[in-house]
Structure formats: structure tokens, C-alpha cells
Amino acid sequence: MVKIYIDPGHGGIDPGAVGNSLYEKILTLKMALKIKEYLEEYDDVQIKMSRTGDQTRSLTYRTDDANAWGADVYVSPHINAGGGVGYEDFVYPGVGQTTLAIQDAIHSEVIKATGFNDRGQKQKNLHVLRESHMPAILTENGFIDNSGDAAKLKKDSFLNQIAQGHVNGLVKAYGLKKKAVSKPSTPSGSLVHTVVKGETLWSISQKYGTTVANLKKLNPGAKEDALKIGFKLNITAGAKYHKVVKGDTVSALAKKYGSTLKQIRDWNKLDTKYTIYVGQNLKVLG
Ligand SMILES: [Zn+2]
């Protein structure tokens, strides 16, 4: 179990940096709530936040709260100001290997997820880094007073990318594993999966308990290497129809498609003799 304390910078009467009609306290809260949401997809993680709304929190409150809870790691997202561009993060001067490894992981993953200008991994004597009793990192995610950074920070999708970078770093640092997705119990109705970044047919097949071969059969358009983000992938077949040709029998079709005689009879309202005719569009799979 990893106890992760997320401390969105500023809040309440302290807006933090302000610029380009943006308030640091609002951006840090949005990022922190997303970090929490993404982390909840992982096993063996506990999350606590210094604030989940626009509350005023003293620096002492924040570190006392994390210390009392017994956090394993302290992550405090901020937005920079003062004439610069891009991303940097801070740990306490002279910290040990554990904290440096966490800084490495979060730093590289945020840069990867956002494409931010990289201002480097830094060390600074700051209250939340000094008074917290666990590895602690403070991230400065773009400059609110830089028009280029501000334009990005105005988009929730970009704040989500920043959050994803933080989470990817924590996942890497602590070897977190995604929660198992419950497999669909019945193949009735078709199940569609929307491809997200980094997925392969293999990883999707594992997620749903199917095989790459099945996915290829159901999605002739999806090439293994060209899985586009946002592609709607059929996971289960859904209903299937068979055009009856001469010589077909219901029992042979049931066997071929893996359904039962009774299912085929019910779906197609056949008579008790299972009468079918050539050219009939017969539902053979539910
Ligand atoms: Zn700040």
C-alpha cells in the first residue's frame, strides 16, 4: 500500500499566482483532482488531499496533515510566475536516493506527457519540502504570466495531461499496477472499447480477457501497429446473422456459431420443426 498525499498549492484567500485571467489556486486544484482520479485506477494506493475545494490551508496545516496521516510521498503541484516558460520541480536540498528517484520519474513523465520546456530538476528549501516527514516534491507546471504556457493551461485537456504525467511518474517510482477490469460476463450486445494512448491489441485483449486473433477478426480495419487513439474497437461480436443457403440446417448452424438450437429458434421465432428457407437472414448469435 502506498499512501500518496496530494497538496494542490494555495487556495481560499490565497490565490497564488495570477495572470492571463488564470488563478493558480484553481489550476492546481483541477490538476490535483485529476491526479487523484487517475491514481484511483491503481491497486494498493491510498490518497489524501490537503484540500478538495477552495479552502484556505496554511503551510503548517498541510505538512502536519500529511505527517499525521503517515503519507509515503508528498506531491504538491503549483503554477509558476515571474517571467519564464515551462516546467521545473523541486525537492529539499541534499535529500536521499529515494526522493531523487521519485523526482526523476515525475520529472521525465510530466515532460513526456506535456511537451513542456524543461527547466530542470531543482532543489530548494521550501516549507512543504522541509517539514514533511516523507519524500516530497513540488512541481511548477508552466508560467501563468507567459502567454504560451497560459494558453495551454486554459485547456482542461492540458491540465489532464499534466496530471497524467504526475501519475505516470508515481506509477514508475512505486511500480503501481492497474486494477483488474472485470470481464464482461455475457457476450450479449456488442462491447466497444475506445483506444487510448499507449494501448496495443495485446494489452486490450488482456484487459477484456479475449485474444488478439478475436479482436482482429472483429475489427478488420485495426492493424496491430496502427491502433489510432480514439479508434472504436469491437470487443465482442454482438448479434450475428447468417444468410441461409441450400443444405443449411439449424443444428449445423448452431454448432458452427456456438449457439443452441433453442436460442436460434427463439431469436427467429421458428416453428417447432425449425423450418428455415434459403435466403433467410437468420440470427445465429446474440
Ligand atoms: Zn504556487
Please tell me about this protein's structure:
The chain has 286 residues and is of the alpha/beta class. Helices cover 37% and strands 20% of the residues. It has ten helices and twelve strands. It has helices spanning 24-39, 59-69, 97-114, 127-130, 147-153, 156-174, 201-208, 212-218, 250-257, 261-268; strands at residues 2-6, 18-19, 22-23, 45-49, 73-80, 87-91, 118-123, 136-143, 192-194, 232-234, 240-243, 281-285. The strands form four sheets. It has a six-stranded mixed beta sheet. A hairpin with a 2-residue loop joins strand 2 and strand 3. Helix 1 (24-39) crosses helix 6 and helix 3 packs antiparallel against helix 6 (156-174). It starts with a strand and ends with a strand. The site of zinc ion has 5 residues, from loops.
